Amino acid sequence: MTMLAAIVQASPTPLPAPGAGVFTSPFLLSLLVWVPVVMAVAIAFMPNPRGRYDVLMKQIAFFTILGLMFILFIAYNQFQNFLPTMQYEEKVAWLPAIGVTYHLGVDGPGIVMLLLSGLIGIASVLASLGVRERVRAYFCLLLLTQASVNGAIVARDMFVFILFWAAAAIPLALLVLGWGGPRRSTAAWRLLGYWGLGTGALVVGVLALYSIAGGQSFDMDVLLKASLSPRNQIVISVAMIIAAATRLPLFPLHGWVRDVLAEAPVGVAVIVAGATTRLGAFLLLRTVIAAEPAAGHLLSPVLAALAAMTVGYAGLAALRTVDIRHMAAYLAMVPGGITVLGLAAVSPLGIAGSVLSMFTGGLAAALIAGVCATLSERAQSRSMTVLSGLAPRMPNIAWLLIIAALALLGIPILASFTAEVMTFFGAFKNQPIGAFAVAVGLAVSAVALAMLLRRVLFGSPNPDAPGVSDGSLGETWYLGLLAGGLLWVGLFPGGPKIPGTDFPLFDPGLLNQMTAGISDIASPYVAPTPGATQ
Amino acid sequence: MKYLGLLPETLVVALAIGVMLAGRFGWLPATSRRYLPQATALVVLVALGVELWAGATVGSYFGGALLQDRFALFAKAAVLLTAAVAVATTDWTAEDSIPLGLAMPLLAAFGVMVAASAADLLGLWAGLELAGAAGVVMVALRRPDLALRLLVAGGMASALVLVGLAFVYATTGNPNLAGIRAVIGNEAPALPLAIPVLLLLGGLAVRAGIAPFHVAGLQVGLGASPLGAGLVFGLSAVAAATVGIKLAAALVEIPDVYVPYVQVVAALAMVGGGAAALAVRSPRPRLAYLAVSQMGWVAAGVSTHFRSGIGGSLFLLGAFAVAATCGPALLGRAEGGEPAIHGLGTLRPVRAAGLALAMMSLAGAPPLAGFFGELAVAASLAQSGSFVLLGLGLLGSVLGVAAVLGTLRVLYIQSPLEESRRGAAAALPAVTALSTAGAVAFCIVIAAYGVFGYPIMGLADQGAEALGLR
Q1: A415 near A483, Cβ under 8 Å?
Q2: Residue B405: which of A93, A173, A218 has the nearest Cβ?
């Protein structure tokens, strides 16, 4: 408990990692957003007679994302976790007539999300190396998706946020429509319909906030700090919850998730499950929890109920299905429910757990979606009545599937354990019924996962099943990267230290970095100390 | 030097007349005629440069009949840019007459310029008619029957506008827009003014092709040549919207006489346009319905009747003008329904990119010109508390984006038609240096309009201020 309490407080004495401060750029965040766009345009106009440079295009996409990860690593290492303010800020007047500024910045939760986006981006490109058709268009759209996700994370102006939030839907829908499975058309339209509804709710919420705040600025520093009446806070928060629920997704606005995660190509399923969906929780954190404390308090039971329904529904639906990709899609909803439970706790510990859960949940959801998609491709079937006893024949994928299952359940050693412990400790105090219901849902999910592992990996082999092969090097690498991320943060949540010192080796520790700004976000929910004077 | 501000209009009219005469009397040898579109685009760009330089000086001409203010500067710059890009992007092998095809967009642009500078009702009406007549001529080159239909519909619209203008004049006793506003400022909204305004807005809605008044113009546009369709969907509608904005600014003291009509028409256009775009599959009708939907957003901005709303509408109108006029021109001869553009992204990548961007911008998809314009209007709707209209607009945009995704799939994901199955209606656009450069310029304008929106929106805002709005 002491460790958990310490996590939510900013470190009073910063210990910079070696090399911190070596690289500086006033455009660090812009690079993360615009480099993928520039490279996508470059790929789009690259001559490619008869697909001669398909491999080169894949390499360009891969090294672009790898380069972004390098920039991100610099940003992560140089991040000052003792500062509660936004860092790497860029602010340029854009459309002053309506109060729009090109304002970017990150705090602790933002840097966590950026890191998640970077890892998922690499995994997504690696998972897509097998794409053979229309390689140019595929990687262009994938890079544009990556840019949209990064843009939404670093946006500090609501107009800019809406721009990137909405922009992510178009390349993703096209990726599903162009490279998806047999029901790709349904999947793409559902994605667009639900995300369109969410974007509409977001726009209405933001414009209502803009209007109430005087209609002078879309800057989050103005909009999210405006003093609103509780009624206005609730109206705006409801719009934001609808937007977040369509994206995360939360029951009952989850209608797209099964089709999209089951029909999308593997690389797209990974980026959807891992990064774009986490933006829903990020939106809730930024707008409802951080900015509207009255609504946060009043609506926290609603959030807890949504979390419980999501986890419960996902577990039950996963139990009922016999399609392994459908099961993965349902199970990928579980981390989102846990993240929202942490937010519903409206306590410093719950909020910190929720932020960590965005990262771990993103990796776990991407891992389960990716491993099930890869397994079904390698085993040439999606039906669990056909897939059986595969562990001896695909050992790498079997191990990765086991890690994915353990990560979803929050087993110790994996990062999701820390996140779930913090979330549940925070939630059982303030939302005991919701937390209990989520725990029950998690138990149902555990049963579904046990069934999946027993039947698919350890059942008796099916002699009538098509031929099976283990994952290729690229597939093992991308899945290994996701599993490795979960293991690394699980083993070294505070970063590795030089033995005998408190000096960080090369990773200052995700838990340390994410604390920046959380104290500020959680401050309205801290109970006043007894006897404290005004 | 006083009349330097009229040099762009002079250049445009002289060029249009010169091109028509050269075509009629065969003054130019065949070898030189090939370069006519390039020369025309260049002269229009020069006119745009002059407009941006000399037009910044505020002044009045012909005894105050024409005003050069920030509103005129914005609208004239937008239509000159539109005309230059439209001339450059057009596949001239698909047009019925090069001289007339070059002259009519210039005359339509001149009509918008006259309406934008007009200080009185007569100037507004003249500009509107000039732009409409250019569209009729373009349609008549290919389909005289449809041109007749457009002429009749346009005549009816014109009659409604004239009757409305006459009643407004009779009620206020003043033909000057500033005078009308001054007189109206002292009066309460009354039925004698509300009825002519209804007639006036009905006529303008027909001209602008706003649902449910889009039926005549839209069907006619579908039968025209690519650039003719662009004129009908784009510049003619822009002329009507320009007139509408100026009249709304004149009547702003008594918004009750026009705001309810405009709100209803805007709602119908935004939702109806988006839904109809989703219902059709062929690219040209889809473009047309998306244009209807975006024109609804322009009307929604006008309905807010204050500066930021009308500034947003003006900003959006600039984006609309470029996308709606050049979209059909980019589509070129591919008029044989959806199969005509199967795999166009592979066969004609630059034109396909332009077509995709035109559709996405008209649908309001991020991060293109239309998105920024629609969000600017949305912000003003929120400020005015029109959340129902805002919600309907968002619904229309979502429907529009869904429709565009269908076209993007066809452009980039479907395999191209086999050459043996490609008939005249599905012929590919010809590739020339000018058309490629035009398509690239179009893509840059649509992509950069919002990104570099600081000066553009600032000018639109000053334009709204110049109309006397607060």
Answers
A1: no
A2: A173
pLDDT, average across residues A181-210: 92
Q: Tell me the three state secondary structure of residue A93.
A: strand
Token representation of residue B332: 């070129």
Q: What is the mean pLDDT of residues B329-335?
A: 82
Q: How many CA atoms lie within 13 A of B241 on its CB side?
A: 37
CB pairs under 8 A between A and B: 108
Handedness of CA A396, A397, A402, A405 (dihedral sign): positive
Residues in chain B: 470
Segment A116-129 shows an average pLDDT of 95
Q: What is the DSSP letter of A321?
A: -
B312: CB partners within 8 A, 6+ apart = A98, B301, B373, B376, B377, B379, B380, B460
Q: Residue A177 and residue B413: Cβ atoms within 8 Å?
A: yes
pLDDT over 60 (residue A14): no
Q: Which pLDDT value is given to residue A16?
A: 52
A174 vs B380, B381, B409: nearest CB: B409
Judge whether A132 lies within some domain. yes
Express each pLDDT in B100-142 by its tens digit.
999 999 999 999 999 999 999 999 999 999 999 999 999 999 8
Number of domains in chain A: 1
Reported confidence tier of residue A24, pLDDT bands at 50, 70, 90: low
CB-based contact, A211 to chain B, within 8 Å: yes
Residue A95: which of B382, B402, B457 has the nearest Cβ?
Answer: B457
Q: How far is A327 from chain B, CA to nearest CA, in Å?
A: 28
Residue A463 lies in a domain: yes
Specify if A17 maps to a domain.
no
Containing structural domain, residue A425: 24-496+505-523
Best A41, A174, A207, A256 residue to mutate vs chain B (most B CBs within 10 Å): A207
pLDDT, residue B454, reads 85
Are the beta carbons of B405 and A177 separated by less than 8 Å? yes
Question: Which element (helix H / strand E) includes A234?
Answer: helix A230-247
Is the pLDDT at A157 greater than 90? The verdict is: yes
Give kind and range of the element (H or E) at residue A106: strand A100-106
Q: Which residues of B touch A136 (CB under 8 A)?
A: none
Asked whether the predicted pLDDT for residue A18 surpasses 60, the reply is no
pLDDT, mean of residues A477-483: 94
Give the nearest partner residue to B454 out of A94, A162, A204, using CB atoms: A94
Cβ-in-10-Å burial (0-12, 13-18, 19+) of B170 comes to exposed
Q: Do A211 and B394 touch (CB under 8 A)?
A: no
Share of residues in chain A with pLDDT > 70 (%): 94
Whether a cis peptide bond, with omega within 30° of 0, leads into B260 is no
In a domain, A528, yes or no: no
Average pLDDT over residues B43-61: 90
Radius of gyration for the alpha carbons in chain A, expressed in angstroms and rounded: 22
User: How confident is residue B196, by pLDDT bands cut at 50, 70 and 90?
Assistant: confident
pTM (2 d.p.) = 0.88
Q: Residues of chain B whose C-beta is under 8 A from some C-beta in A?
A: 308, 311-312, 345, 349, 353, 360, 365-367, 371-372, 375-376, 378-383, 385, 387, 390-391, 394-395, 398, 401-402, 405, 408-409, 412-413, 453-454, 457-458, 460-461
pLDDT reported for residue A1: 47
Contacting residues of B for A194, CB less than 8 Å apart: none
Give A-chain residues touching B372 at CB under 8 angstroms: 95
10 Å CB burial of residue B73 (0-12, 13-18, 19+) is buried
Residue A226 contacts B where some CB pair is shorter than 8 Å: no
pLDDT at B253 (0 to 100): 84
Top mean pLDDT of A283-292, A354-363, B90-99, B251-260 is at A354-363
